[in-house]
Amino acid sequence: MSTTKSGHTFEEQCHRNAEIQKLFIGHPGALEIHPGKWVQARAYKEYADEYYNFQFEENDVVVSTMPKSGTTWTLEVVWTFKNNPNLDNPMAIQPLNMRTPIIEIDTLIAHIPSRGTFKVMFDKQFPDFDQSHGLFLQLAGMSPRPRTIKTHLPFQLLSSTALDTAKVVYVIRDPRDVCISYHHHAKLFFYENFQGTFDQYVDAFLAGAVWLGPYWEHVAQAWKLRDHPNMHIMFYEKMKNNTKEEFMRLSTFLGTNITDEQMEKIIHYSSFAEMKKRDNHIVGASDAPDFMDMAMAQKSGGFFRQGTAGGWKKTLTQEQKNKFQAWIDENCPDKEIMDNILNP
């Protein structure tokens, strides 16, 4: 076990058991980060202190989630509110990961040699900068202001300036839908390359043994900060059920003063169908073969697959539903969270 300057400890023997570990062949081996028992790829220890000391600024907006909770949708909306309210900004054709970089993704892609579109764009925008120490970490640091930054890091692993200085939008989604979407993601992307069955993935998810798990601890850290003036918590189910009301609340929090006319257009622009049409711009088409199983993407859907709430009701077996319910009953930190999810 080793300790970072930020005070976190790394345990090489993660609580993933051997049977779970061998199913994630994209990043063989994993770290367990304390406090919190967070699951991370081994490369995380190279960046841990820089993530913890990353300087967020007053005009930054940080979109934070457990993966597969509506992050991409929220990022596009936040960036559009701040930078493209009239839908006429030519920068909108850049991949979303260039416009709203995820600071910790270097830990997963460090072993993938090609960086495709992102590297080309980075070379053009920052020709004299050394990219060897975290392409996306450095991109986040040098992005044009005001910045919209994405992270899946829990608050224990994130700089305190995220909340003390910037504004944070945290999105919560029904964990059953998160698990289904996360399973597809883990099979689709080479940096996870999950080789097991869905039932095995459910067990890994419930055990907190997926990347950046455990789920409830991740949510709990944000939930206890819900009254902080710089924190805005959203529920994916409410966003789907009453989009305009939720987006208006978000605009008020961000101080972007979006008009009714602008809002109607942005709602259409950021709808699942419209974002799926812009898949190449959002994900980065030329990068896809480096990161993604293209055969699987064509067969079962790529990055944009369904974008629905409540799909777990038809997908999970009764046994899986029972497992999830027992896990929710035991681990959910506040009944109000599930009330918001189930009664949007």
UniProtKB/TrEMBL annotation:
Belongs to the sulfotransferase 1 family. Residues 59-332 form the Sulfotransferase domain. One of its GO terms (molecular function) is sulfotransferase activity. This is Sulfotransferase 1A1-like. SUPFAM superfamilies: P-loop containing nucleoside triphosphate hydrolases (SSF52540). The keyword Nucleotide-binding does not apply. InterPro entries: P-loop_NTPase, Sulfotransferase_dom. It holds the Pfam family Sulfotransfer_1. Keywords: Transferase. The keyword Transcription regulation does not apply.
